[in-house]
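look at this:
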Amino acid sequence: MRDTRIADIHSRSDESSPFVKRHSRVSYLTFPGMQVRLAFAFCALLLAFAAHPVNAETLDIAQYRGKVVLVDFWASWCEPCRHSFPWLNGIQKKYADRGLVIIGVNVDRERAAADRFLKDVPAQFKLIFDPSGQVATQYDVPGMPSSYVFGPDGTLISKHIGFREGAKDEREAELQLLLEKSSSPPHSDH
C-alpha cells in the first residue's frame, strides 16, 4: 500500500509593497522510500515570472535629461485614474513642445484589464506595463494614482498621491514653472 500525502505551500505575499504578490502552490506526493515533487505547469510559469517578469519594462528617467518628466502610476480598477487621464492627455498635448514628457506606468497583473481601461480612456502619452510591480516597488508607490515629477536634471521635484479635480490648476502651474526654468538660458554676470 502506498502512503500518499499532499502538502501545500500556501501563497505568500511580499509585505514590502501592495503591488508585488508572489503566489506559489506546489504539491508533494510521497511514496515509501521516495518523494516525487510535482509542480503544475502554471506554477512553474508563475514562479519564473516572479523571478524574471515578462512584459515588465524599465523606467530610465536619465534618458529624458533636459526634459520635465511626470511619471503616473495607474491601474484599471482605479476610478480617479479615469479622471486623471483626460487631464494628463491635455497637458501632454499642451506642453510637449516645451519639453514635458508624461509616462504612465500600469500596474495591472493582467494586460487585458489595462487594455480594456485604455479602450474606454485612451492615453496620448508613453505607457509602460509593470505587471510584476517591479517599477512601482522601486518608486515605493503608496496608492493609485501616484504621480512623480522630475526636473530636467532628473531630480525628483514632487510626488502627488491621488487625483483631485480641484488640484489640476496648481499641478499645471508647478509644471509650467519647471518648464520655464528648464527653457531659460543661464544668467550671465557680464
Q: What stands out?
A: The chain is about 30% helix and 20% strand. Confidence is low (pLDDT under 50) at residues 1-55. The first strand starts at residue 27 and ends at 31.
